[in-house]
Structures are given as structure tokens and as C-alpha cells.
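Please, structure for the following, as C-alpha cells.
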Amino acid sequence: MTARRSDRFLLVIGLASVLLGCSRHPLTVDDVIERNTSAMGGRAAIEAIHSIEINLHITDPGFEVDGIYRAARPGRMRIDVQAGGKHVFTEAFDGQNGWQWNGKGNQEPASPKAAAALHHGIELPGKLFGLHELKQRGHQIELVGREKIDGTDYCVLRLTLSDGYTTTLYVDPQSWLIARRRDVRPLHVDVDPTPTTIEQRSSDFREVAGVRFAFASTEIDLKTGKELERAKINHIQVNPPLDESIFKKL
């Protein structure tokens, strides 16, 4: 081999080594979790949320209501619903059991499926807990690949909660925020227990107390394309003082 050929050969080998050394490794589930956590505001800011109060407006095809959603670590919640300025409904989960009040009389225990749905809502990322906290809470997360929807090549995470409930989270690789969620469930289990494939689309992310929250969401029946529910957040208060008794009784 001539000197010139030898030099070219070594140059090719060197370039190949550099290119291989700089090649990007495939994303892992931990990579996606870490990028989402950073986009949401970081571990410290997320974990500093011990309680939350959300004032929101909910629009269903047949009615519109206002709600106040309150939640607190380690896993309690309550939502009070008003229609026309009148308190008409409450449901809550006290960390162990669910209950509801239908506008008159006394509160009653929630059905097991309704209580489970309330519990799931607390555990899902975006209110109290960050995606990075879910494994230590006994849930499982796996990266199942990529899926292109409406031009966005989402990172797809399958989240299995500790009770076996499964949902799919779609992380936007541009913002690293969870922009969509899909699961098979009833919209309101005690109203109509028939499950369907629902996609929740989250948008209008805003920063509150150093953490980004979705101020708008829409739930779509993927089988029919019908809009099932739309929610708009008016105000979020982080770490309001909440009396523990509100999760147990009216």
C-alpha cells in the first residue's frame, strides 16, 4: 500500500470512529422521564407541591359546570361541582375509600370502580406527582416506541398503576410534555359504565410555582371522533392550606 493510500485509509477509519463515537444512542424510558421532568420544571419544584387547588370549567355535550378540585399528598382528592352557582355534586377519595354526595341528603360510599377512577386521577402525572415519582409509588413505566399522530412523532410510554390499571402517555419530543393520553374506560363510570377508547389532549401549558400545568384539555372518543368533555382551568393555587377533614366528609 502506498503512503497516499495508507493516509486515506487511516483518514477513513478515523472519520468512521468519530462518527460512531458521536452517534446518538436510542432513547430509554429513563431518558424520556428525565426530559419530561426537566420540561415540567424539575424534580425540586415538582416535589415541592404538597397540595393543590384547581378552579376549572367543564363542558359536556349536554351541560356546563364549574368545579373546584383539591388534592394533597400522599394521595387524597375532592372535587366540588357547581351548576348555575349552586353546589350540586361532590366526590372525594380519602386515601383509602371514595365517597360522593349528589346534592341532597348525606354522602354515600362511591362504588369500587368510581373510587378507583378517583384514585387513578390523583396518581397520574400532571397534578401532584411528576412522572419521575411514579416508579417509587409502585407503578411501572415502559417505553413502547414512537407513534406519529398529526405530524408529531411522539415517544409512547405505557403506564401501569399498582392496581393493574393501564394507560398510554404520549410525550411530545419537541416540548417533552405529555400532550396526549389514551386508555379504555368509561368517561363517568357511575353515569354510563360502558368503556370506550378515550384520548385526552392537553394544551395551553403555563407555569405556576415553577411547574408547568396544562390549562386546557379535551377528551375524545377515538372510535367515533366525538368530543366527550372539555375542561378549562381558570386558576391553580399550589400548596394551599387544606384541612384533612375535607377529604372525609362534606
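The mean pLDDT is 91. The longest strand covers residues 196-208.
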